[in-house]
């Protein structure tokens, strides 16, 4: 702990976002960075708590106090070595993780001013790339082969961990490039795809074989491997099967997000296949991060207006007594996309889609209220009868994903990430990848 009083004298300082008027004209990353001195000062605010709740809350077990102290002292290489000992890809989590660690930081619990852990993490890994601390490793091969099906966060971690242990790893994915939702779900303004490509080049140089654009039937896995890991994510989006669903102009969120990312990579699509919000009144159904990504993308595409509706009540601002620590605080959240122009509404359920000439023109919504359960269980939703029609030209469904049902696999087949748990956070998928890699290593080690 370099400065025992820093948390008293130095306020939390976030890097913030580029100006709205500037960032909505492009798809470049919206988040800015602090200079080196300011970043070190932010790291000094870490109190090196006797019981580091930040470490406890992190799914991958990052040792935040240790690398915060190294960062404050200017020991960037040491900071990266400690960080990378628990996190395979800090350049991803440092940009898109919701930072469960910060919600458990003692400075969050005591004065709502947590250490800027996520931003500090991103600064450390970027310094590591810049200064050449990250070098290609050439592990000695052990003669065993592993196939990883799915190149999202979980699959990438499994492949990386096993490759470094000497296994010959082949990574299969149905898409044309690795990354999963990192590449085809998260917009470039949150995670530039050059960040992904930079790491993929290292993984390839270290010996991982990438087989992209290959659809694998998990019931008929490719032969010639000693073990397999299924990391296919949650491919089925939650649908809204109400009258009018067949109308044109109603899309799943990933139809827009994945297509826009591909367009930025130079791909083209026929006009009748484009999912574009230009000149349209857009309705986003779903109040989570995917819905927020749809808002930012719609704004950049030139939407006339964007409305986001959520079936749940509006969360409290700042503190929610219903979700005390150590629960995840369900509080009102404003993202960078919300700041760019959006009408947000709560306690609305969708009854039917309305249309004309086969195209969606409106959505009938109804206000609902939530009745607390007397036994302390899940509250009940009650329609109030207050109905209205929201005029739309495009509807984006961002209501999450269904947990996939997996067949009974052989003993040498393992699961990781969303394929095992259902839709969750990138950092949890990465934690699952580490766990699966350790299980595969133990299995193949004890087998022979």
UniProtKB/TrEMBL annotation:
<keyword id="KW-0314">Glutamate biosynthesis</keyword>
<dbReference type="Pfam" id="PF07992">
    <property type="entry name" value="Pyr_redox_2"/>
</dbReference>
<dbReference type="GO" id="GO:0051536">
    <property type="term" value="F:iron-sulfur cluster binding"/>
</dbReference>
<protein>
    <submittedName>
        <fullName>Glutamate synthase subunit beta</fullName>
    </submittedName>
</protein>
<dbReference type="GO" id="GO:0006537">
    <property type="term" value="P:glutamate biosynthetic process"/>
</dbReference>
<comment type="pathway">
    <text>Amino-acid biosynthesis.</text>
</comment>
<dbReference type="Pfam" id="PF14691">
    <property type="entry name" value="Fer4_20"/>
</dbReference>
<keyword id="KW-0028">Amino-acid biosynthesis</keyword>
<dbReference type="InterPro" id="IPR009051">
    <property type="entry name" value="Helical_ferredxn"/>
</dbReference>
<feature type="domain" description="4Fe-4S ferredoxin-type">
    <location>
        <begin position="37"/>
        <end position="68"/>
    </location>
</feature>
<dbReference type="InterPro" id="IPR006005">
    <property type="entry name" value="Glut_synth_ssu1"/>
</dbReference>
<dbReference type="InterPro" id="IPR051394">
    <property type="entry name" value="Glutamate_Synthase"/>
</dbReference>
<dbReference type="InterPro" id="IPR017896">
    <property type="entry name" value="4Fe4S_Fe-S-bd"/>
</dbReference>
<keyword id="KW-0560">Oxidoreductase</keyword>
<dbReference type="InterPro" id="IPR036188">
    <property type="entry name" value="FAD/NAD-bd_sf"/>
</dbReference>
<dbReference type="InterPro" id="IPR023753">
    <property type="entry name" value="FAD/NAD-binding_dom"/>
</dbReference>
<dbReference type="GO" id="GO:0016639">
    <property type="term" value="F:oxidoreductase activity, acting on the CH-NH2 group of donors, NAD or NADP as acceptor"/>
</dbReference>
<dbReference type="InterPro" id="IPR028261">
    <property type="entry name" value="DPD_II"/>
</dbReference>
């Amino acid at each position: 702990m370099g400065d025992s009083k820093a948390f008293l004298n130095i306020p939390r300082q976030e890097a913030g976002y580029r100006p709205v008027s500037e960032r909505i004209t492009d798809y470049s990353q919206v988040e800015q960075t602090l200079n080196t001195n300011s970043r070190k000062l932010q790291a000094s605010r870490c109190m090196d708590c006797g019981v580091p709740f930040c470490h406890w809350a992190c799914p991958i077990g990052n040792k935040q106090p240790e690398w915060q102290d190294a960062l404050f002292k200017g020991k960037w290489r040491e900071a990266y070595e400690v960080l990378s000992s628990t996190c395979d890809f800090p350049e991803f989590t440092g940009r898109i993780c919701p930072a469960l660690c910060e919600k458990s930081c003692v400075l969050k619990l005591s004065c709502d001013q947590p250490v800027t852990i996520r931003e500090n993490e991103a600064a450390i890994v970027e310094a590591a790339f810049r200064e050449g601390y990250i070098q290609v490793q050439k592990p000695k091969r052990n003669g065993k082969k592993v196939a990883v099906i799915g190149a999202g966060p979980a699959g990438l971690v499994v492949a990386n961990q096993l490759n470094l242990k000497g296994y010959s790893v082949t990574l299969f994915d149905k898409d044309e490039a690795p990354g999963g939702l990192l590449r085809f779900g998260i917009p470039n303004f949150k995670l530039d795809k050059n960040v992904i490509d930079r790491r993929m080049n290292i993984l390839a140089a270290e010996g991982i074989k990438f087989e992209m654009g290959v659809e694998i039937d998990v019931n008929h896995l490719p032969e010639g491997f000693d073990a397999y890991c299924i990391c296919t994510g949650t491919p089925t989006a939650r649908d809204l099967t109400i009258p009018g669903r067949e109308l044109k102009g109603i899309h799943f969120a990933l139809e827009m997000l994945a297509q826009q990312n591909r367009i930025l990579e130079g791909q083209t699509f026929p006009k009748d296949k484009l999912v574009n919000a230009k000149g349209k009144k857009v309705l986003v159904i779903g109040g989570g991060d995917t819905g927020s990504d749809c808002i930012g993308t719609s704004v950049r595409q030139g939407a006339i207006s964007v409305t986001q509706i959520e079936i749940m009540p509006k969360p409290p601002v700042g503190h929610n007594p219903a979700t005390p620590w150590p629960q995840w605080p369900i509080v009102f959240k404003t993202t960078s996309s919300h700041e760019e122009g959006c009408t947000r509404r709560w306690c609305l359920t969708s009854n039917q889609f309305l249309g004309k000439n086969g195209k969606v023109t409106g959505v009938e919504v109804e206000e609902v209220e939530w009745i607390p359960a007397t036994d302390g269980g899940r509250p009940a939703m009650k329609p109030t009868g207050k109905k209205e029609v929201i005029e739309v030209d495009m509807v984006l469904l961002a209501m999450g994903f269904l947990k996939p049902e997996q067949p009974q696999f052989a003993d040498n087949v393992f699961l990781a990430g969303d394929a095992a748990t259902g839709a969750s956070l990138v950092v949890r998928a990465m934690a699952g990848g580490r766990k699966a890699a350790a299980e595969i290593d133990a299995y193949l080690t004890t087998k022979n």
